[in-house]
Amino acid sequence: MSAVMITRKVRKWEKLPGKNTFCCDGRVMMARQKGVFYLTLFLIVGTCALFFAFECPYLAVHLSPTIPVFAALLFLFVMAMLLRTSFSDPGVLPRALPEEATFIEMEIEAANGNVPAGQRPPPRIRNVQINNQIVKLKYCYTCKIFRPPRASHCSICDNCVDRFDHHCPWVGNCVGKRNYRYFYLFTLSLSLLTIYIFTFDIVHVVMRKYQLSNQREQTGFTVLEVLVCFFTLWSVVGLTGFHTYLISLNQTTNEDIKGSWSGKNRVQNPYSHKNILKNCCEVLCGPTYPSVLDRRGVMQEDSPVSAASAAPSSSSSTNPVPQTTVRTHTHINLNIKSRAITEGVGEK
Ligand SMILES: [Zn+2]
Ligand SMILES: [Zn+2]
């Protein structure tokens, strides 16, 4: 049975390696595990809904009508920052093409020489100089590239991410070069929103108590909100404080955990301006970087189909085989190889 090649156009995101999920035709990019992200959405939306339903009407009448307006603006900002962090490319680095990978590995082998059998080959590292500091670039065995400085491979998303900070299950995405500032603004605004709701919940309880109102059942929801806000406060405000400290040093969570610039090996942080204000400006107001993935770019893909299924039959003569049904689930690199094999066989 001979094979027939059908060429179809596919978006590049459909063929990207790694463990990300895409929707809206590649516009939205997230990690595969999204359970905790839905919990984040539920907690934020649920707490705010209770606040708007049970506290705001009372506080707007008895205290100030600006209280619900400010809460609504803060809530919208929190949601915008959360979705911006969760749905964007954090700075994923493309993997090497098979030919590039072969070339890099040949270069490494040539540099290392022949390693006697039974001996461990030397680590695959390249040194670069940044601001008079020697920084090691490590080779990623999965992506087949020497990672740029500050990049790291996320085991959950299975991608190398530029200026990798950490993988955050709460936002359902990696936090890296392209979404760090939005992540920080999310934690900062969420801290403010939590403090705001917590404060006005307590004001509401106190005002009702002194008013000797008979609407006691409504304060039950207020107590629930106070409890949620109280536990959120510790974690979110603590996290914001930690990231403020990291930004003031121009350091990532990954570098802090690994102690990359702790002074051992006499390597100081080459990215720090030794000035808190300059570091904050660079991290929060520096240039934004375009995605290098080109997720919505179009590429041609040849898919082999058997001649029997491709030949028009009586039932398909009026309804030809739709190209979209010819889908291969193989990796693009394997696809190139299988294509070469199939074509080789066909030429004989
Ligand atoms: Zn990698
Ligand atoms: Zn990740």
Automatic annotation (TrEMBL):
The DHHC domain is required for palmitoyltransferase activity. This is Palmitoyltransferase. The lineage of its organism: Eukaryota, Metazoa, Chordata, Craniata, Vertebrata. Its EC number is 2.3.1.225. It is found in: Endoplasmic reticulum membrane; Golgi apparatus membrane. GO terms for cellular component: endoplasmic reticulum membrane; Golgi membrane. Its main location: endoplasmic reticulum. Coiled coil: none annotated. The chain crosses the membrane at residues 36-54, 66-83, 182-207, 219-242.
